[in-house]
Amino acid sequence: MSDNLQSARWVAGTGLGVALAVTLPAVFHQIGLGPVFLPMHLPIVLAGALSGPRAGLLAGGLAPAVSHLATGMPPVSPPVAPLMTVELAIYGLVAGLARHALTGRAAGTAAGALLREYLWLIVAMISGRAALAVAAVVLGPALGLKVPALVYVKGALLAGLPGLALQLAIIPVLVSRLQPALRHAPTRSGQS
Q1: DSSP structural state of residue 147
Q2: In this structure, which of 3, 98, 168, 177 has its CB flanked by the most CB atoms within 10 Å?
C-alpha cells in the first residue's frame, strides 16, 4: 500500500472514529444509556483496529474534547472528559497494536481467527480500563475528582459492564466484516 493511501486511510479512520464517538453517545444519552453502554468506546476501538494504532490513539485522544465542545458531554467537571481522554487514547492505541500483533499474518482455522479477534479486543479493553484507573489515581486529585480514585474506577467498571459485553458481542463481527472491504477498497486509479 502506498504511503499516501496509508496516510489517507488513517486520517479517514481517525476522522470517522471521532465523528462517530460524538454522534453515538448523543443518541445513547437521549435514552439514558450513555454510561451503561459506553458508546464512545465502540468507534475508538474500531478506529484503532481498522485504521491502525495511530488512528486509534488520535481518535481516542480527540473524541472526548470534540464531544464536549459539540454536546457538553462528557463533562470536564467532575473530570470525566480528561480521564476518558487517557482511557480512550489507550483503547485505540492498544486496539491497533494488539490486533496487528495477533492477526497480522496469522494463518489457521476460522475458529483460530475468531479467537485472535477476541484476544486483541480483550487486551484493548483491559488496557483501556487500566489506563482509566491510572489516570484516576494520578490525575484525579489534581483535576478535582471528588471521590477516591478506586471508588470512581470501580463505579465506572460496574456501570459499564453492559457496554463491555456489547463490545465483545459486536466489535469482532464488525471488524471481520469491515476489514475485507477496507483492504480491497479501490485506489484513485481504480485498482485495489
Answers
A1: S
A2: 98
CA separation for the pair 14, 21 (Å, rounded):
10
**Computed from CA positions of residues 49, 51, 52, 57, in that sequence, does the dihedral angle turn out positive or negative?**
negative
Find out whether 88 and 61 touch, Cβ atoms under 8 Å: yes
pLDDT digits (tens, 9 = 90+) for 89-133: 999 999 999 999 998 766 678 788 888 999 999 999 999 999 999
Nearest by Cα to 33 from 90, 73, 86, 84: 73
Distance between CA 86 and CA 39 in Å, rounded? 16
Does residue 76 contact residue 32 with C-beta atoms inside 8 Å?
no
All three cell numbers of 117? 479477534
Given phi > 0 = left and psi -120 to 50 = alpha, else beta, which region is 77? Answer: beta
CA distance 112 to 134: 33
**Can you give the pTM of this predicted structure?**
0.89
